[in-house]
């Protein structure tokens, strides 16, 4: 029951992930970071089966970094990165032991100066969305985003909206998520926006 | 539940008119009851006058649209011309049958005009590539039962392009309104010998 949320605003994409790493009813860690930086303008947040998640995220991270090394420090665009991740998951779902990992890809396309948010599940279903979440959190947050999201919001307004949905989760969900890490991806790259 | 064909939802329909064909689909992509996107197109164009509709499991819709784009590009290099609807139908059929014992969970439709004679062509497939040739209409997706009902009652042969547009639109809109997994907008393509008309329809948002 991890929480990962994503929100695309006018000139950035914001990603929030819960800090709790749980196994059954036990909280193993309260400072777990469920994200990996792929390249300066791409970040993935992941949920799913315990061992699979980090292994998959780091495999993707390694391959995206390998691309930049081979291609003269060219960054793979968010669209191409999303496509690569989707392809890996779509291939994996028809293998003997599929990766059970759902991801959100927050990116900023340097060529066209546009922020992007990609929702990809373990089957390889991929969509570009203005706001997204995985798991149970999606039921509570998407309706809130539907109501309050506006085109061309500022980062601050986006963070306000994010706070609203995290508060809603605390009211409606039975678990303590031990707080959240917030990351912002914009023209200057990935930056940490602290924790909420 | 947990039927791969109805996990993401979505519907499509194709019809034949007088020297024209129409193909339409909804725009919803969901995860069971949760709607994710209202901009997920399920119709893909191959060349000037050939279209492929793909409904079913979204990951396979994306995979197959990419596979057929790739195969169409190779076909164009080899033949130096666009693919005919009939040829695409056989390509779809053999591609699906290659995965006979682990199929793609999709119900494809092909619609188009023959590039030379402009004779209308439509057909549908099951998930392992059995072709369903039809003279009138073909349906697919989670609202296929509703689509059959509406097609049977509203369709008439030899409609002019604009009348065919009205018919296919009413069929799709009224079918998806009786299906919780389809809707959230729709797109209609009318294919005539000298132009393609694409219209995005507004629908109920529930």
TrEMBL record, chain A:
The keyword DNA damage appears for this protein: no
Localization terms from the record: Cytoplasm; Nucleus
Source species, domain of life: Eukaryota
GO cellular component: cytoplasm; nucleus; proteasome core complex, beta-subunit complex
Subunit note: Component of the proteasome complex.
Function in brief: Component of the proteasome, a multicatalytic proteinase complex which is characterized by its ability to cleave peptides with Arg, Phe, Tyr, Leu, and Glu adjacent to the leaving group at neutral or slightly basic pH. The proteasome has an ATP-dependent proteolytic activity.
Protein name: Proteasome subunit beta
Organism the protein comes from: Pichia sorbitophila (strain ATCC MYA-4447 / BCRC 22081 / CBS 7064 / NBRC 10061 / NRRL Y-12695) (Hybrid yeast)
Automatic annotation (TrEMBL), chain B:
Keyword Glycoprotein in record: no
Keyword DNA-binding: no
Gene Ontology cellular-component terms listed: cytoplasm; nucleus; proteasome core complex, beta-subunit complex
Signal peptide residues on this chain, from the entry's feature table: none
Pfam families to which the protein is assigned, alphabetical: Proteasome (PF00227)
Alphabetical UniProt keywords: Cytoplasm, Nucleus, Proteasome
Compartments reported by the entry: Cytoplasm; Nucleus
A biological process from GO: proteasome-mediated ubiquitin-dependent protein catabolic process
TM stretches of this protein: none
PROSITE patterns: PROTEASOME_BETA_1, PROTEASOME_BETA_2
Cited CDD domains: proteasome_beta_type_3 (cd03759)
Record's subunit section: Component of the proteasome complex.
Family: Belongs to the peptidase T1B family.
Described purpose of this protein according to its UniProt entry: Component of the proteasome, a multicatalytic proteinase complex which is characterized by its ability to cleave peptides with Arg, Phe, Tyr, Leu, and Glu adjacent to the leaving group at neutral or slightly basic pH. The proteasome has an ATP-dependent proteolytic activity.
Name listed for the protein in its UniProt record: Proteasome subunit beta
Organism: Pichia sorbitophila (strain ATCC MYA-4447 / BCRC 22081 / CBS 7064 / NBRC 10061 / NRRL Y-12695)
Organism taxonomic ancestry: Eukaryota, Fungi, Dikarya, Ascomycota, Saccharomycotina
